Structure formats: structure tokens, C-alpha cells
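Q: For a teaching session next week I want to show students how multiple molecules come together into a single three-dimensional assembly. I've collected the sequence lines for a complex. Could you give me the predicted C-alpha cells for the whole thing so I can convert them for display?
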Amino acid sequence: MDPNSPIIRLQGVNKSFGTFKVLQNVDLEIRSGETLVIIGRSGVGKSTILRHMAGLVAPDSGEVWVEGQDVARLSEGGLNELRKKMGVVFQYAALFDSLTVFENIAFRLLRDFQMSRSKALEVVKQKLELVGLKDDLVDLKPAQLSGGMRKRVGLARAIAADPEIILYDEPTSGLDPVTSDAINDLILDMQKKLKVTSVVVTHDMHSAYKVANRIAMIYDGKIIGIGTPGEIQDSRDPYIHQFVTGSVNGPMPVR
Amino acid sequence: MNPFAFVEDVGRFVLYFIEETGQMVFLALHINQWVFRKPVDGRLIFQQMTKIGVESLPVAVTTAFFTGMVLALQSGYTLETKIKGVSQFIGAVVSLSVVRELGPVLTAMVIAGRMGSAVAAEIGTMQVTEQIDALYTLAANPVKYLAVPRFLAFTFMLPLLTLFADIVGWTGGLFVSTLKFTSAVTYIDSTRTSMATGDIVGGLLKALVFGAIIAVVACRQGFATTNGAEGVGRATTNSVVFSFMLILISDYFLTAILTALNI
Ligand SMILES: Nc1ncnc2c1ncn2[C@@H]1O[C@H](COP(=O)(O)OP(=O)(O)O)[C@@H](O)[C@H]1O
Ligand SMILES: [Mg+2]
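A: Of course. Below is the structure for the complete assembly, covering every listed component.
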């Protein structure tokens, strides 16, 4: 594949839930190896964009291409092959309540990759260290963990099978500033050391500026601006300016 | 107030019930498509079976014991004082009622209330906390991973628990009957001369169908959950209401088929 061609491409994506139009004609390209950050207020459709990339929802019209494949046209088997190269970090971790931390993180290693439990335990401990957790919590259930720990276990599960693409849904929300910054470093590390392509949804501007190669702002179902962190920070667009400076004064109404 | 509001509500419920039943048939077909596809995860199935067995056996047998006792009391009273002097048939009445009808139906209701609702709540919680989405992204099909083991566990465990309920219910009848009406020998004789293997097998067949219904209803309600914790509550209640209705409706038709076949 051409290294300059986008690894993920949304083309004219429209999506409604009922009569509510969430995404309107969204075009977005993510290049191989870059970290693209999507910013925007709650409820504008950021998670919905990620869910399209993961094949969890299909567009009403338009196309979603990942690694040269039209996601909506893939069979379940084809989609699963694609998902083997993809890690998804959910906003509230989405850990399996009935499984231990070890079984959560090793879920795919044990099932898909038929790894032995002892080998999987090695990998799990290594991933836990990466996300800044001690390996003595492998036998705990998610209910026994704090919110921040759950989030990091979710991250460890997403990177367990060494994905080429990682989709992060608000990876730092609800974490203390120190842990947040450790997650930022981890996102940067994954990119530098493992050449991972990342899409990060966030409204934490500190995190956005730190990890992004490019930032896209979404408002009212559309991408209203995309550029380098510097370009976004200096943007004259009143919506973008209002959002990145975190001000009540501007064109966006406070709902 | 709109005088037709009640009629409208009933109409809406009937439509919803029919629509949901359609969705359940769809899920049932989907489950059957996955049942025999590899890998068959024996551990998950076994885990569900033991859970159902351990958690509902006490309730199921208690229900059955008292049902058998009350049946003996009622039929003993009827046969002795209303029809007069035919209390030697208590054994037949109790055992046939339990084995053909009350064993399977009451056990199914107990398990729908105890375990079906739990499954709906569990899968519903997984749905609203994105655990179902997480399964997809980890290349695990939720029907295969969650619904199939539960479906197999319920369809296998229902007949087994019903068999226990039959035995315990019959024993409850024996207990009251010997205490108040006839000798144990008469009760046992009456059972032996009236009951055939077909009665037991027919009842267990019903239980099997009820097990499938409970599992499909619970999984469907779980997967269709929306609106957070409130939605989980609704899925839980709906699974019990729908299970009860579908158990009783299908019981009529199963009985019609079985009796038409002279079973
Ligand atoms: N499965 C769904 N069914 C109905 N509405 C949905 C669904 N998913 C998202 N929405 C709605 O779409 C809008 C965008 O949601 P989302 O993408 O989660 O926003 P964000 O992540 O930017 O906060 C919200 O108003 C949400 O209520
Ligand atoms: Mg979101």
C-alpha cells in the first residue's frame, strides 16, 4: 500500500439516529502513523465517528475505508480480520465485569491467538507496566478497581495484541492530571516506538496539543476545521477559538 | 381523560408483544446458526449450567413440594367429599398433573423469574456499558459468546430441573395423601397404573421448549437494552413478563399437539 495514502478515510459520511442527524457529510483522512485528535463538545458525534471506524455502526450514506477496505461491505469474518489490527479504548473502559483483569486483557490472546495462559500472562504483565499499573492486580475483578485503574486496564486490553491502529475515546477524561499525562506519554510512545496510527477523541485541550499531529474540530455534525495543533490554537474561526480557549463567550450556545 | 386511552395502551402492548416475538424468532434463528460453529466453548456452557442449577434448584424443588402437597389436599378433598369415596385415585391425579403440566410450567416460571431476569440484566448492563461493543472489537460475536452458552444451558437444565420437580412434587403428594386420605401403597399403586413413560417424556419435552423460550427472551431483552440503568430495569421486567406469556401460550399448543399424538 502507498505509504502516503490514508489508512482510514471517511467519505461523505451521513448518520442519523431516528430523526436526529448526528453526522452530516463528514470527510476525514487519517494518514499512516499519525495521531489525529478529534475535539468537540459533548454529543456532537465524536464517538459516533470512532464507532464507524471500528465497524460498530454503518453509515446511512457515504463510505468508511480502513486499510483499503470498505468497512460497511465487509463480511463479519473480514471485519474480524481487520479488527485484529485495531485496538479500541472505550470511554468508560467497557471491561467485562465477569472476567478478571488478566482475562480481560488476554481476552483476544487466549481466544483468537490461541496463546497459552502462561505466555499470555507474560504479555499481560508487560502491558500493565506500559499503562503504569502493578501486575499484582491480574486476579482482581473490574468492580474492585478505581475508575482510573479501569481505564488503564481498558487501554492495556486494547494494546494487548499489538494493534496497528488504536482508537481512543476520551482516554484521559475522569483521570487525575498526573495519570492523564502518563496516558498522553503512552499514546506518544505507541506512535514513536510501534508506528501505531491513532485517532483520539477528547475535549482535554492539554492532551490534544500534546499528542496530536493534527486536530480536527467537529461541530453540528460537520468537521469545521482541521490542522496542526499550532494552526488550531491560532485559528480565527470563532467556533474553534471559543472551544480551544474554553470560553462561554462566542457563537456556541451554552446548552 | 381520553376514554380510549386504555384501549390504546392495550393495542400498543399487543403490537409491541408481536413485534418482540418476531425479533425473538429472528434471534433464535441466529443462535441456531452459531450453535454448532466452532469453537464450541464447553467451559462457558458448563459455567452457565451450574449457575442455573445451583441457584434455582432450591426454589424449584420447594415450589414443587408445596404444589404436590396442595394438589393432594385439593384432589383428596374433591375425590372424597364431592365425588365421594374415590380417594384411591389421588396418586393418579397428583402424579399426572405434576408430570404433564405443573412440573414443567411452574419450574419454567421459577427459572424465568430467577435466572431469565438475571440474564436479561446481565446482558442489558453489558449493552449499556459498551461491553457488547467491546466484544465485537475483540472479534467475539456476542451471540456466539453470550447467547449460545445460555441457550444451551437453559434448554438442557430445564428438563433436568423439571425431573427433580416431578419427583419432589410427587413425594409432596404422597406425604399429604398418606397423612390425610389413603395409604402410601394405594397412592403408589394408583400412580403406577395410570402413568406411562409418555407422560414423563411429554412433560420434559415441554420443559425443553420452555427453556429455549426463556433463554431467547432474556437474551433478546438484554441485547435490545437502551437508556442506561433505567433500561436495564425495564429489560429485566420485560423478560419475566414475556417469558410467562410465551410459556403459557406455547403450553397450550404443546399440550394440544401431545394429546393429539395420544401422549
Ligand atoms: N445508538 C444510538 N442511538 C440513538 N442515539 C444515539 C446513538 N449513539 C449516539 N446517539 C446520539 O448521537 C449523538 C452523538 O453521540 P456521540 O457520538 O456519543 O457524541 P460525543 O461522543 O461527541 O459526545 C448524541 O446526541 C447521542 O445521544
Ligand atoms: Mg463520546
